[in-house]
Amino acid sequence: xxxxxxxxxxxxxxxxxxxxGEQLLLATTAVQATLTGLTAPSGSTGMRLHxxxxxWTASGTLTINGTxxxxxxxxxxxxxxxxxxxxxxxxASYEYVSVNAYTAITNVTTTGLTGGFxxxxxxxxxKTQLSGTMKSKRTPKIYSPNAHNGLIERDYRVLQLVNNxxxxxxKQDTYGDLSLWWPYMVMGAPTTTATYPASPTSLMAATSIxxxxxxxxxxxxxxxxxxxxxxxxxxxxxxxxxxxxNGVAGVTENIAVTAxxxxxxxxxxxxxxxxxxxxxxxxxxxxxxxxxxxxxLSGGNPYSMAVEWFDGxxxxxxxxxxxxxxxxxxKVDGEVTLTAKGKASDKLPIGDRTTANISGINRIAAIxxxxxxxxxxxxxxxxxxxxxxxxxxxxxxxxxxxxxxxLKLSPEEHFTYNNSQNFSRVYAGKREATVDATVIFTNxxxxxxxxxxxxQYFVYQLLNGNPIGVNGSSPLYKSWTWTLPWRSxxxxxxxxxxxxxxxxxxxxxxxxxxxxxxxxxxxxxxDQIPPNYAS
Length: 535
Fold this sequence. Notes:
This protein is mostly beta strands. The chain contains three helices and 37 strands. The chain folds into three domains: 9-133, Jelly Rolls (Sandwich), CATH 2.60.120; 198-289, Jelly Rolls; 324-527, no CATH class. Strand 19 (237-245) and strand 20 form a beta hairpin. It starts with 10 loop residues before the first strand and ends in an 8-residue tail after the last strand.
């Protein structure tokens, strides 16, 4: 028989949480044939239901009914508790995390499950695919009483205390569009957002929607994201955009219009042949932009994330994931990587846990990833170094070969009395940033900056591929630009090796709060992801 892929087919989905952690949708109640009155799921992608049943004595079924994806209903068989479970001192329960993500719940129905109690929580479902790798681990703290009890054996009751779930690593190449999760998780929401051009280009003035419409002005080369502003809304419907994307004509996308508001195209269009309408009654205006600029500062409030991971065998969700440490690592002759480490409130299997063979069954959404967004590599970087009394990005610095920016965030998770193994709160702690750099040692100016402990503006800019437009008379690129006010961290080490052609110096710097920036570190990202990323 043919062999199948396992870890080679893994995938990761992620979403910033609108409300951190699992949300209680139904407080613990006696099992009934039909359970209604569940709190509505939140979030643009809906929620997976986390159901726990305790104290049941007979087998039965659970059925979830609502509006979901990929299906509106699912049923799972619940076996009667085993003798082993009955004898458990602590943890005897049946748990299930739904395969579907629900935007609305009609009811939960049951059969059997005599004498049981049920609790339902919601976990936000993934929104975007994170093209990278991941490691996580659930490690409950163990307690075994050491007491005078007439036994020579040390352990006679081994209990679980609180749950410690770690996100040991999420690692990804740095992309122009696909890496926006990292600053949201590490630095929080952007403090400022701007468009390119500063005023979006008008492509069609506000007009009543008809069955078929054409733009009065075509997108500007090389292409634009479309912003659709809907007003005077009365009837929901679907708008279909047809145009040229990446040189391919006749590409279509559908946008569901459910209310007045702002909608964004998924594609970047160099030409739009038409917009057709099914049932929508409203007024529509269309503008276009090359992209958006997002400014992230060190003092922001990082987002918690719901992270879903298909590791090739099992499918998992990690609610209330937060970062404790993060790295941006660039080498001129290699790739540029992003790494985040942290914790989550739990690591939960998705779907029926009694399945004997789960290998190859992916239970997270097949969101897909953009093959047009390329990772950035080291040689696409630019470096500037200026005195703190000057202007950042003024003086090019051409001697640097390696740069690793490390952020230590120091958040604290706290457990409260709520009859749960999982932490219920996370608080921000002091955060710091350091930079490890390797330079070709060519002059004493670097040494003197180190000796005198002088503060400088360090700017590292990473550009992505071909221009996405123009900014004034200059090409506009997808990019990541760090501005770091730094001083030496006490380490500057020129190294001379007779087997090497040059003398290099490894140095370490520490970022210091700068009133002009209002931060100890600043990151500006230019990309083509619209500003509804966190919704």
